[in-house]
C-alpha cells in the first residue's frame, strides 16, 4: 500500500455516505442533497475523467439546434454548471443552477445513490457516459499531477492500487458504473460508452433532449 505520509487525502478530501469527496463539496452537502430539480432538466453524469466536457458540448449543441455561435457565448462551466462543485464564493453549482432559466443542462460525477432524489421524482433526462477503467485511471493520475492543490499521487502503480480500492474522489469506478448500469432500462436514462462516442459520433444524438 502507499505510504500515507506521501499520499495524505485528509488534507483535501472527506467522505459522504462512505464515498471520498472533496472537502469543499462535503462542507455544503446539504445544498446538494436538497437540490430541487425541474422536469425539463438534462443531467450529464460521468465518473471523473470520462469525457464529461466533450459530452457536455455535444449535448449543449443538440439542445441549441446545432448553432455553434450559441455554444461560444460563454464558458462551459457557466453554460452547464457542475452540480456539487463548491469553492466558497468562487464556484457554487447549486447557486448557478437555481438562478438559471429552464431548460437547464447540468453535470455531475455522483453515483446513482448520491444523485438528489428530486431528479428521479421529476423524471429528468439523464445521460451517463462510461469510459474504460484503464483509461480513466491513467487520465486521473495525470490530472492529479497537474493540479497543485492535489496530493502527490505517487508512482502510477501506487495510484492504481488506490484507484482499484476506490480511495480516490467519487469512490470506486466499478461501483459507480454498476450503479448507473442498473438504470440502463429506465426510459429516462441513456447509458453511453465513451468508446462508442469516438467510433460513431452520429449515434450520440439519438436521445430526444427537448
TrEMBL record:
Domain of life: Eukaryota
Record-linked SUPFAM superfamilies: P-loop containing nucleoside triphosphate hydrolases (SSF52540)
Top-tier EC class: transferase
Boundaries of every Sulfotransferase domain copy: 39-203
Pfam entry (one): Sulfotransfer_1
Family in the record: Belongs to the sulfotransferase 1 family.
EC number: 2.8.2.-
Lineage of the species this protein comes from: Eukaryota, Metazoa, Chordata, Craniata, Vertebrata
Gene3D superfamilies listed in its UniProt record: P-loop containing nucleotide triphosphate hydrolases
Protein name as annotated: Sulfotransferase
